[in-house]
Specification:
Chain B: It comes from Fibrisoma montanum. Chain B: One of its GO terms (cellular component) is plasma membrane. The complex is a heterodimer of chains A (642) and B (468). Chain A is mainly α. In chain A, 73% of the residues lie in helices and 3% in strands. Chain A has a two-stranded antiparallel sheet. The radius of gyration of chain A is 28 Å and the shape is globular. Chain B has one domain. By secondary structure, chain B is mainly alpha-helical. Classes of the chains: A mainly alpha (642), B mainly alpha (468). At the A-B interface, β1, α26 and α27 of A face α6, α8, α9 and α11 of B.
């Protein structure tokens, strides 16, 4: 079938790009390598667009008929379990496809300019392509196992790219930290998959969800499965307690931060929950736990963001916090709102990271905002696009972030007023630290060295073009789902048929009237605006600059500045005991294990030495042995009873 | 059926081509003949026919086995370029005999009648005796041929004895006739039947080198020219197992309880003898001989636990094992030739030892990789075809509940890792002064195809399912 081919092509393009660049990066000139990688992702994007158009055009598919499936081949079949290598095309995977390949193409284009002077350019492009390939597997797979392949693959690429500048030990440690923390989450995810196989006998989404609709709400097995899956999401989407790797992941080149650690990979957890929405709707307790973790993550990360001075670290904590908002939306079964925020966040966070990259590029790899300031004159395009991104993330109308965040908060309000108030507080913090970042970077006087001032320049067109595109998307992305029944809600509605069936209450029509809704909007926008103004007063009118590293801080400030000592806490209660255990086992356990292993090996060799003597080369002996064996066999069979 | 006729004609043709002055045409001709035979093999696909008055059966299973055998033969012949450079070699005769021996192998795959089985086994065996001794000036080759012949003749006697007893008991040579007798005895099964069954089985087990009838294998595999060792350990083994499977699943499945314990004991002995003895070997070629014994053991598991999955397991295992073995011998051929050229003055015979592979991967990454993949596959490491082969085999034992057999097999495959990895360690971690080895393009394709097939089947074993 034609769509089968199209589906196969989408991940194939980046894979081909990876193979070409991955094997030939020593020989392929930089310009060609960049073009190959970018075109590969762009081709996937165009194919996805085509598929999307075909999907929209086909009325049958957009209504209630099942999703489109493309089975490439039967992959594993063991006993009753059949796992096919197949893709599922439905509303959710199409949205993710468009985001991943669309934003991905822009970031590839940007990387051509950003990484131009790097020695490992070809290798970098190859890794980016490989990442896109795995990400596409993750979102296109039609069962949990394919998703898991993609899940592991993007984790691998994230590791490779965080530690891309691998001569720096700190960067390698950051890469390792990300990998290990993700492994903890992956273990949960894997156990969840096993449990799904055990309960449903299949991993195919359509079959699992069909069977799940007949279960009762609050089923304990579903509770366990959803919690285990959510552990996986915690790792990948950086929620408490597995979030500390994401800020450290900023060691990677900035395009990587934009693509992997903001726009796509870290939203895999949200994708997975939305994908499994039937299971999660069946387990209200899991949803409440998610809600608690989400709001805690959102506030904690936002508060850390207030005092960070590294331009990328601020954005990283902001990402953690925004991911918290997405999960917050999911926790009140506002799956569409969560996905909507994934999409808008992909636009504006990619924009902000790329803008930060442009600044870092201009400042000759300076990342400390205390040494920036007044850059709006020298970097006009970057400044305007960064401003748009900041407004969008702060939730000021009419930019994209306002609509998506507002939709989440409206649903939360309906569900739980306290959560809503905390959410608005987080929104105020977000607005403050983002405007603080904007003002410190682009306003006031330049605080860097003479050499840096001399070198200041606007980035090349390959870098500014993606910024402009993303700025337009960040500004206008809100039209996807305007309040009061937007396009996205209608489009995604078929995905939640199963959930609606198992728990109609959670999907009941909104009970709040329009006036309340407008008041809520006004409150959140107003709070964001006030925070922004406070930031303006502090950092522009008064021209305050954060204190350097050495100054004494008050106690609470000290705690926040040091990220609540979470890393130190983990070091003390997890890393050190494990290392101690390892040392202990190493000192005496090794002796025993070595003894056993070597002993077995010695036994086998000794046996071998004896057995080989049988092979003495004498044909007389061989024939004699054969006759003896024949006699033994016949005797055994007829004279011994067994 | 078509391949049998064609191969007979092609074999005669090749002998005539040998009269030509130039040898250059022989190899392409042999390859072409094999390809044509492979292609016509599939003419009867999805149809079941009896040929030659009900002597031979052609169904999808026999065609799949035929394809594996002919494909292996094609790859082995493709690696035989060195004959063209060897003055004393007689390539036309080698190729002719190879094609004739394949006729025997195909008869063993499709036989419907014990006479046909006997004729097939003898055609194949006699051809192998000759090829084993084809390196006429080499004493070891001569000795091996003589040993093989003496023991083979001895076993032929036993096998024929078994057939005669079976005929005496059942009054029939056909598989169906024997089955009918075994399933539905008039007065209970006669003793002649049981003894005949065991002797026939022993005869075939000798051909696939199961312990304790394996003693010829190391000496013969070691002494024969490497190329023919590759042929023997793939084609002969696959044909032997196809014949055993046919015999046991059709004629004797009714008396499973009688023979399965014997077969299980033989399986255990084979696994232990093959794997444990391989550990001590210093010659790679001799190690491969023991490895081939151990793989016969793994294949026997499927027969001792005869069931629904056995067919698929044996087909998959034969294919995985053949491909990996051919790649390993292919690399060995090149390395040994290079080492011989280097040590021609010192006259050392270490050209086939593990040390010959020291540092191979650094100078010859392709050879190193092909060898590593085939060793991993033989050891049964995941993501290679060998892993799934073992997996299918072991699951047949699980299906039958023969857990103790499974335990032995798993322990022995752990031992297998020891000697297979010695090669990988030698290639990748030892220092050695290997000059780059020139690999002819066609030779390279064969190695690449074998490697890709091993990895491909390892990643997507389902590709082969539903083929038959």
């Amino acid at each position: 079938m034609q769509t089968d081919l199209l589906c196969a092509l989408i991940p194939l393009f980046p894979l081909i790009g990876f193979i070409i660049n991955g094997f030939g990066f020593r020989r392929i000139p930089k310009s060609l390598a960049g073009a190959i990688a970018t075109v590969a992702v762009l081709a996937s994007f165009l194919t996805s667009c085509f598929l999307f158009g075909a999907f929209l055009g086909n009325a049958n598919l957009t209504s209630t008929a099942g999703p489109l499936k493309a089975v490439l081949f039967d992959w594993i079949s063991v006993g009753d379990l059949d796992i096919s290598f197949s893709f599922q095309i439905d509303q959710l995977s199409l949205l993710m496809l468009l985001v991943v390949t669309g934003v991905g193409s822009l970031i590839h284009l940007y990387s051509i300019g950003y990484m131009k002077h790097d020695e490992g350019f070809g290798k970098f492009m190859a890794f980016l392509n490989l990442f896109v390939f795995f990400m596409l597997l993750l979102v296109m797979g039609s069962n949990y196992v394919i998703m898991f392949i993609g899940w592991e693959g993007v984790g691998l690429c994230s590791y490779l790219l965080i530690g891309f500048w691998n001569t720096n030990t700190n960067y390698n440690n950051a890469a390792r930290k990300a990998f290990v923390m993700n492994r903890i989450g992956d273990l949960g995810f894997l156990l969840g998959i096993f449990w799904i196989i055990n309960l449903f006998g299949t991993t195919e989404y359509t079959d699992v969800f069909k069977q799940a609709t007949s279960l009762a709400i609050g089923d304990p097995e579903i509770l366990a499965i959803t919690l285990l899956l959510f552990v996986g999401a915690m790792g990948k989407s950086a929620q408490i307690p597995l979030y500390t790797w994401l800020p450290d992941a900023m060691a990677g080149p900035t395009p990587v931060s934009a693509l992997i650690h903001a726009a796509t990979m870290v939203t895999a957890g949200i994708y997975m929950v939305v994908r499994s929405n039937v299971l999660y709707t069946l387990s209200p307790l899991t949803l409440e736990i998610i809600g608690g973790i989400a709001i805690a993550t959102a506030l904690l990360a936002a508060s850390i963001g207030l005092l960070q001075n590294d331009i990328k670290k601020v954005l990283a904590y902001s990402t953690v916090s925004q991911l918290g908002y997405m999960f917050l939306g999911l926790s009140v079964t506002a799956y569409t709102a969560g996905m909507f925020h994934v999409i808008t966040h992909a636009f504006f966070k990619a924009l902000l990271f790329l803008g930060a990259g442009s600044v870092i590029h201009a400042m000759s790899d300076e990342q400390d905002i205390r040494n920036m300031g007044g850059l709006r004159k020298s970097l006009p395009v970057t400044f305007i696009t960064f401003l748009i991104g900041t407004i969008a993330i702060s939730g000021l109308p009419p930019f994209a972030g306002f609509f998506s965040k507002d939709e989440i908060l409206a649903h939360v309000f309906e569900h739980n007023k306290v959560l809503w108030a905390l959410g608005v507080l987080g929104s105020a913090l977000t607005s403050f630290y983002m405007f603080r970042l904007l003002f410190l970077t682009f306003f006031g006087e330049f605080r860097g060295t003479e050499e840096q001032r001399h070198h200041l320049h606007e980035s090349p067109a390959t870098m500014t073009a993606p910024l402009v595109f993303l700025a337009i998307l960040s500004a206008a992305g809100g039209v996807l789902n305007l309040p009061g029944g937007g396009w996205l809600s209608d489009f995604m509605a078929p995905l939640f048929e199963g959930s609606r069936q198992v728990n109609p209450e959670a999907f009941a029509e909104s009970t709040i009237d329009h006036s309340t809704e407008y008041i809520l909007m006004a409150v959140s926008a107003g709070v964001a605006l006030i925070s922004g103004i406070i930031a303006y007063v502090m950092y522009v009118s008064r021209g305050a600059v954060p204190a350097p590293e050495t100054t004494e801080r008050s106690m609470p400030e000290q705690v926040v500045y040091n990220k609540y000592y979470v890393d130190e806490f983990y070091e003390a209660i997890i890393v050190r005991p494990i290392r101690g255990l390892g040392d202990a086992l190493y000192s005496f356990g090794e002796f025993i294990i070595d003894g056993v292993v070597n002993g077995v090996a010695w036994l086998v060799r000794a046996g071998s030495n004896q057995l080989r003597l049988l092979q003495n080369g004498s044909i007389g002996f061989y024939v004699f042995a054969m006759v003896l064996s024949i006699v033994a066999i016949i005797a055994l069979r007829f004279f011994v009873r067994f | 059926m078509f391949p049998i006729v064609l191969l007979s004609v092609f074999g005669i043709l090749l002998l005539f081509l040998g009269f030509l002055k130039s040898r250059a045409i022989l190899l392409p001709a042999a390859l072409l003949f094999l390809l044509v035979s492979l292609a016509v093999n599939f003419i009867d696909w999805n149809k079941t026919y009896l040929y030659f008055n009900g002597m031979l059966l052609s169904d999808n299973l026999s065609m799949v086995f035929t394809a594996i055998v002919l494909g292996s033969a094609f790859m082995v012949v493709a690696l035989s370029g060195s004959f063209m450079e060897d003055e004393s070699a007689q390539p036309a005769e080698y190729y002719g005999i190879l094609l004739f021996s394949l006729v025997g192998a195909l008869m063993m795959i499709g036989f419907e009648n014990l006479i046909m089985l006997f004729v097939g086994v003898e055609i194949l065996s006699v051809a192998m005796y000759v090829l084993t001794g084809s390196d006429k000036r080499n004493l070891r080759s001569n000795e091996a041929a003589l040993k093989y012949f003496l023991m083979g003749a001895f076993t032929t006697g036993i096998m024929l004895f078994g057939m005669a007893l079976l005929y005496g008991a059942t009054g029939s040579f056909t598989l169906g006739g024997i089955r009918a007798y075994a399933v539905n005895p008039q007065v209970g099964l006669s003793l002649l039947f049981y003894v005949g069954l065991l002797m026939l089985l022993i005869g075939l087990l000798f051909k696939v080198s199961a312990a304790p009838f394996h003693f010829w294998t190391p000496d013969v595999y070691d002494g024969a020219p490497t190329l023919f060792t590759a042929f023997m350990s793939t084609v002969v083994k696959t044909a032997g197992f196809a014949a055993l499977f046919r015999l046991l699943s059709i004629s004797f499945s009714g008396v499973y309880t009688f023979w399965w314990t014997i077969l299980a004991i033989i399986t255990t002995l084979t696994l232990v003898a093959g794997n444990i003895t391989a550990v001590y070997q210093n010659s790679f070629k001799r190690m491969m001989a023991y490895s081939s014994i151990s793989h016969a053991g793994y294949l026997l598991i499927g027969l001792a636990a005869l069931g629904q999955q056995t067919k698929q397991a044996i087909v998959f295992y034969s294919l995985a094992y053949s491909v990996a073995t051919i790649a390993a011998f292919g690399v060995l051929l090149l390395v040994a030739r290079q080492r011989n050229a280097e040590t021609i003055t010192s006259g050392g015979s270490s050209s086939e030892s593990f040390d010959a592979f020291n540092g191979l991967a650094r100078q010859n990454p392709l050879l190193g990789f092909a060898m590593a993949v085939s060793m991993l596959s033989l050891a049964g490491i995941p993501l290679t075809a060998g892993f799934w082969g073992k997996f299918y085999m072991f699951s047949t034992a699980v299906e039958r509940g023969q857990i103790w057999l499974l335990v032995v097999a798993v322990l022995m495959s752990a031992v297998g890792i020891y000697y297979y990895f010695r090669v990988i360690i030698a290639m990748y971690f030892r220092e050695g002064a290997t000059a780059p080895i020139r690999v002819a393009p066609f030779y390279r394709y064969v190695l690449v195809v074998a490697t890709l097939l091993t990895i491909g089947l390892g990643i997507a074993p389902g590709l082969l399912e539903g083929l038959f």
